Amino acid sequence: MTPITDRAKAWAETVTLPTYGIGQPDKNPMFLEKRVYQGSRGVVYPYPVIDRVLDEKTDQAYTALFLENRYLKVMILPEIGGRVQMAQDRTNGYHFVYYNRVIKPALVGLAGPWLSGGIEFNWPQHHRPSTFEPVDWHMVDNTDGSKTVWCSEIERMFFTKACFEKASAGLSEPTSAMYYNDQPPDMIFYQGLARQKLGRDAEARQIFQKLVDYGQAHLDDDVTMDYFAVSLPAFLVFDEDLNQRNRIHCHYVMGLGQLGLGNVEAARQHFNQVLALDANHQGAMAHRTFQMSE
Questions:
Q1: Are 84 and 96 in contact (CB under 8 A)?
Q2: Does the pLDDT of residue 231 top 50, yes or no?
């Protein structure tokens, strides 16, 4: 193990990995309505379809991108979809993500080859069509001393590029369910309740007020979206009224915030607004009759 230092580093180097090859793309691929690939549709044009993997391995050189600080060391392979191939805890040498030291594809991907292990980035669906293809990359030295590795592509089916927003911890805004987020509104609400139980009332009120403020600020947003990536074989297309969906979300968020602040009647009015728009909203039904403990 290399010596541990506090300084963050980013670099590229050539690594050699045992690799099982893949067949040549089919010039005339069959576009099947149903395939063995998890029941998905087989329409992948203009991506090439590869339906064969080889039985023998050879050593192959790859450009590997590394990020490292005192605690972590990460290896990214931009030639194979920009996947995180290795992630190691430098304090004890433990690989906390499965490290596959052999590149042995299976025909699991939408367009054919797919590799197990590491962390696979998927857009606009799981096992994205380009999961085994090269992506663009570059490194950035940030002014605060941190390092960033960017991997990027414009997918060829719909000519889109993914942009992921991750919330900051704890007091993050409850972004709409249309985006991935590790802080949904219910979780933020119960964080506030926990602080109340600990006697940290000022912190709790700050959390509840943030929910109310968010709902008020975004209630009348004009929301547009063509499709959204889910962990399913195909795209989820939104045919519903997204503005109404957003209003449901914002009223629910404000209801939680008002409930936390002790404004039970105001909270009930927001939950009633939610149920008027979506009679099956489980959260609103559960919290509408909720009474704050003394």
A1: no
A2: no
In CATH, what number does 185-288 get? 1.25.40
What global pTM score does this model have? 0.57
* pLDDT at residue number 294: 39
Residue type at position 193: L
Phi, psi of 126 (to 5 degrees): -70, 150
**Where, residue-wise, is CATH 1.25.40 in the chain?**
185-288
Contact 77, 117 (CB under 8 A): no
Q: Rounded to whole angstroms, how far apart are CA atoms 202 and 275?
A: 31
Residue that has been written with the tokens 């980013």 in this structure: 10
Composition of the chain by helix, strand, coil, percent to 5: 25, 25, 50
DSSP state of 79: G
Between 150-159, 167-176, 212-221, 232-241, the lowest mean confidence (pLDDT) is in 167-176
